[in-house]
Amino acid sequence: MELSERKQKILGAIVELYIKTGEPVGSKSLLSELDMSVSSATVRNEMAELSALGLLEQPHTSAGRIPTNDGYRYYVDNLMVNRQVDESLRRRIEAGFGSGISDPEKLLERAGEVLADLTGCAAVSTTPSGEGAYIRRVEAVPVGTKTAMIVLMTSTGVIKSKVARSDFDLNASVLESFYNVVKASFVGKLLSEVDTAMMQTLVASMGGDVFTLLPLITAVSDLAQEAVHTEVMLGGQSNILHHNSYYGNTAYELLEFLRRGEPLSKLLSSATEGKDVDVKIGSENPYRQLMKSSVIVSNYNIDGNRRGSIGIIGPTRIDYANLIPSVKYLTDLVGELLTQTFKEE
Amino acid sequence: MELSERKQKILGAIVELYIKTGEPVGSKSLLSELDMSVSSATVRNEMAELSALGLLEQPHTSAGRIPTNDGYRYYVDNLMVNRQVDESLRRRIEAGFGSGISDPEKLLERAGEVLADLTGCAAVSTTPSGEGAYIRRVEAVPVGTKTAMIVLMTSTGVIKSKVARSDFDLNASVLESFYNVVKASFVGKLLSEVDTAMMQTLVASMGGDVFTLLPLITAVSDLAQEAVHTEVMLGGQSNILHHNSYYGNTAYELLEFLRRGEPLSKLLSSATEGKDVDVKIGSENPYRQLMKSSVIVSNYNIDGNRRGSIGIIGPTRIDYANLIPSVKYLTDLVGELLTQTFKEE
DNA sequence: ATTTAGCACTCTTTGGTTTTGAGTGCTAAC
DNA sequence: GTTAGCACTCAAAACCAAAGAGTGCTAAAT
Fold it and tell me: How many CB pairs under 8 A join A and B?
């Protein structure tokens, strides 16, 4: 869509003013913000044309204009200039991580909280995906004569644990054969390789040990499954109230929607293919509950591989110019932290 | 405070009716619920007296009565009969835990979610306190030539991990001396014994190894600190909206308050000394933000020792008779699950 | 001494009416 | 193409009246 320079200037100003004030923008109040040597009537004509193009709309006939989804989209794609993440903000972000959290789950949770505080939006973050990660180590720690805690650690530093209960005494020799099996069949394997087929052939090949070891081995497999799954975490829910106090009762619906991790997970993974930062505005979102919200998501990479996402959810009239860079900055930082921590030299 | 039998009956009925409907209870509507052979005027007189005693109040002169905090308190202490947790509810609770989550942190988080869903309130839960727990095992897993992931497991099944970075190569002999130190000075120790004093004497006694081992040992100590700390988790925030849509704007304030773990933690630990289930009503709570809320908290025990708490936060007009037993039931269940899992036979 | 019927009074809620004012679209002149 | 002017629209605010639920009080009844 081609717009005259003047139309662009007007559209941009309306979007920004509306983002700032939340009030529909009228031709006069727009002029007082913008130094243009034209009259309000001229602006009105332009606004009428922008409306006809579907970029602006009116809540009712005698009100000012607000941007439509397409209006925001045009703004984000063509008009907006990303603000720099300024020094003080950077410091706040970095301070938010405090001293070396190295558990990735905790780190990502914290990242969500930091982002939520910073942006005043709800924030989502996912733990690093286990795709491509392999099993680095497995331990069996006896906690009783017949029970042991199985601990699995992946190459991405994720640690999962679970108690396994056997019908037999877990004496030294049993543990030894357990470690043998683990060493032969699990350590170094990709998490995704540990599936039911693999387990079946493993069990078939085990012979006599199978009864004593089965519960332990099963636990290892369970943990591997768990570690592949990315977990979705949500923070800053209270911020939604802040925004949606206008929107009436949708706040509850939105919060309720965000509680369910599964749709969120889809949202994050579908987003941001290829692009640096993905912005979905209002009805561009695939879920009814997000029709009035915008979602800004970015991926973090560990060692150059995309491993997870961090994003924020806010009203469509969100401060794109400032927040998109913020999300990007935080995401990159998280990627760096994780890469550094788990770099294999 | 002594009340005539009739006053008790009236107060109880008002509390229950108000809890059910949320509307101030008038003398007539009360009579239609209650089969008493007196007139509304008599009831009015009684109500006036209950008001004078500070058990009832009126939102405005010409409205029905609602219970005051003291009114609720009297009801909970003297009038209420705990409902049984019925079969279907038990099943829902037990189903909520699915198949063997044995990571205590995850289990408690899940418990909070289950409780929130069940009660329609926000729920808080704490991870098992490390007080009295000892260090069961420590592992150092190399992730690079100079970095290792330190994993610590406690007797209560809590697992904490952290990456330690050294200036020296972590070769086999370094790891061996690390394990020696760990075996001698950490394994079997109470978490609370690992403090700065203990660390200082340890470092002093270490001699030449100190430079290579210090980062690793420090990490162990950090993890022990972390493991003593109970973590507070919050679930079901969206439910607060549900209730507080009446209350005006307090919902945001409340949510914002609940985000901060620290006051919550105090709340939980101060509560429920000795008692089975602790109920704090409105202004009985030590925080301004909770003045209009009630908190129902109960402890769970592992092996007979109090280890943490689970509770719900709702409006003062919460269904005490049903929810108090529910909280109790869930708490006991969690205690049992954790006890079973980590029982040392 | 309680209980009750009756009544005047209070105060929120509800709904309708009016006023206000920001903002528009159109027309005609520049 | 731009602008001044003007009639028109419509949400929001202000105002008012009526309705209704509920009370407290008094005086009679039990």
Answer: 103
